[in-house]
Amino acid sequence: MDTLTVNYQSEKFLKFLLGGIITATVIYVSLFIQITLNQIFALFLGAVVITFWAHSKVYGLTAAVIFFLIKPFWLRLAYHVDLSMYGSSGFDLLGLMPTLILVSLICSHLYMSIIDNKKLCPDRTRILISLFSALCFLSIFFPTNSIMIGLAGFQRNILPNMLILFLAVSVFKNEKDILVLVKSLAVVGLISILYGIGQFITGIFPWEILWMKNVGFATSTAGWLTIGLRGIEFRIFSMFYYRTDFFFTNVLIFSLLITYAKSFTGFMKCIKILFYISWFIMMIITFERTPLIMSFVAVLIVYFMNATQSKKKMLITAAITLGVVAYSTLLVFEPYLKSSGVESLIRLAEMTNPLEAGSIHDRTDNYWGPSLEIIKSNPLGVGIGSGSGTKASDQVSLADSGNIQTHNEILQKTLETGILGGVLFLLLMLSILKDSLQLSKVNRSARRFGVAITTCTLVFMMSSMITLTFSGGRGLTFWLLVGVMLSMLSQKSVLQNEMTTSDLKKVEV
Question: Is residue 169 part of a domain?
Answer without folding.
Answer: yes
